[in-house]
Amino acid sequence: MRIRQLFRSGVIREFARSENANIALVFSLALLPIVTFVGAAIDYSRANAIRSALQSALDSTALILAKEASGDSSIALNANAVKYFNANFTPHITVSNIQISATYSTSGGSKVVVNGSVDIPTTFLGIVGFEKLTLSDSSTSSWGNARLRVALALDNTGSMADSGKMAALQSSTHSLLNQLKAAASQNGDVYVSIIPFSKDVNVGSSNKDQNWIDWSLLGGTTTTTGTCTSGTTNAFAELIASLIKDAANCAAINFIWTAGTTTTTVSTLVKSTWNGCITDRKNAKIPDNSTDYDQSAYEADPSILNSLFPAENYSACPVAMMGLTYDWTSLNALVDSMKPAGNTNQPIGLVWAWQSLVGGGPLSVPPLNSTDVYQTYIILLSDGLNTEDRFSTSQSGVDARMYDSTGAGTCANIKGAGITIYTIQVNTGGDPTATLLKNCASKSTYFYEIKDASQLAGVFKDIGTGMTRLRIAK
Q1: Of 218, 228, 330, 418, which sees the most CB atoms within 10 A?
Q2: What's the pLDDT tens digit per position in 318-345?
């Protein structure tokens, strides 16, 4: 009754038309959606952070499971998925209702799929009835026909002793090796070689009796025998051919060389005191005349003197290289043994990294399976500009062997062979950006220039992620 009287008296209508203090009423009504929207942004920001942690843990879980999935039952696979996920999932807030499942299949290639979801509590969205958000994602690790072969050409020159560069190189290489190891579902999925270089490389003094060594720089003599024929019935051509006593000259005029024997004369003392160092091969053309020996991975042929690897006792000989292997313990031990000394010859490090991927000299290559797909990479790291090789002590002279003004040289030859090159310039001394290294990389984005040694870890991680991404399908 009282309300009807108020309406009849017009009090209610007057109150509605009144503008006195209405701002407080409007603000009160608007406050709830404003708080809700701001709170939602905060809650969703927290959710995105948890989603990143969720995806990272799922990826790690998928990679680990791939190593054992073929031998696990469905129950064991799921139990291990939960265990590995919990070990890798480190959210910054409390979550609940974690659900993890895994499946293994061989359809279209072996793969493990890991699915996961978590509930996260909300702070502000609870006001409007959303007390939690559910996040879900998945990761697939596939393997079986895609394998990696990675060669690391690592600068061991004297300047690597400065600014903590050698320590950063060793630490970052250890991390990269761990990353590559984690990408291998089974032995043989990933092979790695390491080629430490300065002016020379070290093939190991235990190879002193091998027939692929040229001892001429240390006073030895090598005599090769063979027969050159013209391949025709022309008597004059056969006479000319009979006067040619080496394979290179025979090939130069498109005649046919039949190898005989190679005899090397070198003193026992020279062999016993050799430190294992090898310098550049000669800049003479390989038999097909397409490029020079020092710019190629042409396998040493005892019947062709120019193809042999020249021994010398370089005083700053780096530690011995290691060919393709998945012996991760030995690879890491080699990294720890590296010491900085000597001048810079990037081309020899690069060409021996290539040699390690195709074989030759002291380096053997694991056999390839016809049903598998192989991806081959070279990572070339150097902290400075080229200073010395067998032929020159000028930067331009060394650079030209690696990549000349016409685009020819070792880098082009490697890329032409289908090998992907990453290059890194550790530029802590304020040198100009190394155009040579930039041009040598397979893509402009595969060249990295860092100004501080501490940045190297991030670069190696980025490269390792790029190379191993094929192991994570999603």
Answers
A1: 228
A2: 999 999 999 999 999 999 999 999 999 9
